[in-house]
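Appendix B, Record 12. Input sequence as logged:
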Amino acid sequence: MATNGSLSVDGYLTQDPGFATRVVHCGLDQQELPHGAIVPPITISSTYKMKPGGKWGDFVYSRLGNPTRKALEDSIANLEDGQFGLAFGSGVSAVKAVTMLLNTGDHIVVTDDLYGGSTALWRNHTERTGVTFTYVDARQVSNIENAITPKTKMIYIETPSNPSMKVIDLAAVVEVARRHPGTFTVCDNTFMSPFFQRPLNFGIDIVLESITKYLNGHSDVIMGCVATNREDLYARLQRIQIDLGLVPSPFDCYLAFRGIRTLHLRMPRHMHSALQVAHFLEAHAHVEKVLYPGLESHPQHALLKRQAYGCSGMVSFYIRGSRPQAMAFFQHIKLFTMAGSLGGYESLAVGPTFSTHWQNAKEELEYLGITDSMVRLSVGLESPDDLCADLDQALNEACRQA
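Logged structural output:
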């Protein structure tokens, strides 16, 4: 992987040379820290004292606002190149808040390949409120255009998608939305983090992430966030956040605030190792196909380079065989842990059909190409040589025994 300096990757967008400084200092510039502290304290108070005369200060009640949460939310806005940021108690809470912007009878056009928890939320709960959904292959933006009706109020995409790593043209999606006044755009950016992709810069109205993943990076927090440059959407989302109590705890905000400080160091390592792992898997006799947008063989590799600063540590591949080979593979991995989630310092491996997408119908999975032989990797910060060796022995054992 050729690099230009410590942040920019050849062929991709040129990273802001001050992004590392922003990572280290964001959320601190407006803080008046007590006792000369350089780390914001964890403010656990549930309520706050009124000023003389019965006037409120900056904080009233911690569901409405909390100093530790505000520092994190300011950081989110900064890193996403947005004006406003909000933190939620989970990634799904953030998805819930965004879809609550709609009313009964409204319609959403959604990319057909995305996190299974989002579709489960919508099908089990949101559809009961009278909001309707149309799922399309958003790689062809004409499919989005054709699905729009007079009732369409939102276009919701995820790029790269989970778990099939489909890349969607951000600028083209925004162009479609602008041809339909009253329709706003949402992008789930979890797989990339703001280090590698900042959708707001392409005109996306709301960017959404699971802080649990790369932003926190240490597999010890459940949290989500949104960022936007639209004050009207921010005000409505903040009201939803407060009224529904979809807020994270101060301690979790502190952990995420701390985790963000190393984002610029972790993400290049994730990319470097994932690229080595992806190349290794492409050449392996027991691997049928590798899905990694950072590979030149990926059909949307050129598009990714036009709208991203690099590629993360998420790699999907198909084992030659079917479920028996896949299950044997999971039994033999040693450095990769068979577990859900992603974006932590440790490497994880999971089969989407029995984890992230277990609630999806069999016919839908078949249409999306999500089979029992698919494996999704979150490549961590270990030695990439050791990771490749672990994958090699597990694949060889799986295909020999199964």
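The chain has 14 helices and 14 strands.
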